[in-house]
Amino acid sequence: MKWLEVSVPVDQEAVESASEILAHFGYAGGVVIEPAWTSGSEGPEFRYDPIRPVTLRTYLLLDEQVEAQRRRIEEALWHLGQMRPVGELQTCEVEEEDWANAWKQHYHVQHIGEHIKIVPSWLEYNAQPGDIVLQLDPGMAFGTGLHPTTQLCLQLVEYYVRPGLRTLDLGTGSGILAIAAAKLGALPVLALDNDPVAVEAARANAAHNHTPVQVALGSLGSGQHMGHWLSGDFRTEDHKKGSTRDADAGVVETEPFGLIVANLIAKVLTILAKDLTASLAPGGILIGSGIIIERESEVVNALEATELQLIERRCEGEWVALVYRKDDREDRSGVR
Predict the structure, then answer these.
(1) Which of 66, 75, 169, 188 is the most exposed place for a label (fewest CB within 10 A)?
(2) Beta-strand pair 213-217/243-246
(3) Each residue of 89-147: pLDDT tens digit?
(4) Confidence (pTM)
């Protein structure tokens, strides 16, 4: 099977809008986000450069419709380029086996937070005492640990997880956040995604890391009716509050979670605000990320209209992560 790789460099503030354009046409709504990196001061440690453009990639099946899809992407990006800097659209044909391996050259050992080390599965790393090592093979899924939103979430997961904390990673992508939570002592850990490719990658990564993460195809509440979270398909039909959907098991009721990590996008967080709140236990923590600063107020307004209180805000470049706590006056949860 052959694919057309479509890539474009864009200004930092255009990442979300350009991603939505590519996701509309790309396979399973998937978009690879490659921030610009500069070498760190300690050898093969790479750091995010917030000034240089970000490269976005997606893949189109090479069939009779591909040229029409390419033209529509090019036209949409041209209109976006009238507002923000957008580079020239590049395309090339790739075999499926080439696609599955081409991204590996972009990934290196990442040091995040105090103890987390993200190690691509094809590299060797000598772990030091206290290291929490995540061996990752993202495949064609999101969640490589490179994007600022993922790094923000990892930092917050490291701080808020405690042993035995019931945890949900919503929109798990490669499973990186769920695996980190499990290695930090969270139990049980449920990882959900409505992209079958992501579910497959997350299951493989959880097994490779020897972590007891349950991975399922599904979402919460209104999310059950959406396509991939970057696809722009935001249907909000009636739904069963506080439930998830698995492709093989139908609707599955879940107990409330002490921690929910939702590294999505602003619009999806806004739509799911009530469902996220309903799925939290009293005193539970919600980490919401994937929010560009310009859209932050939408998310804040939606979440603060529920039973949640903002307790922390972190930024990396143009991206924001918000931490909310569900009201529990008696503070029985022990969540700090």
Answers:
(1) 75
(2) unpaired
(3) 999 888 766 655 655 665 678 788 899 998 877 778 888 899 999 887 655 445 555 67
(4) 0.65
Write a three-state SS string for the chain.
CEEEEEEEEECHHHHHHHHHHHHHHCHHHCCEEECCEEECCCCCCEEECCCCCEEEEEEEECCCCHHHHHHHHHHHHHHHHCCCCECCCEEEEEEHHHHHHHHHHHCCCEEECCCEEEEECCCCCCCCCCCEEEEECCCCCCCCCCCHHHHHHHHHHHHHCCCCCCEEEECCCCCHHHHHHHHCCCCCEEEEECCHHHHHHHHHHHHHCCCCEEEEECCCHHHHHCCCCCCCCCCCCCCCCCEEEECCCEEEECCCEEEEEEECCHHHHHHCHHHHHHCEEEEEEEEEEEEEHHHHHHHHHHHHCCCEEEEEEEEECCEEEEEEEECCCCCCCCCC
Domain 2-104 classification at class level: alpha beta
Q: Where are the domains of the chain?
A: 2-104, 142-326
137 exposure class (CB count in 10 Å sphere: 0-12, 13-18, 19+): middle
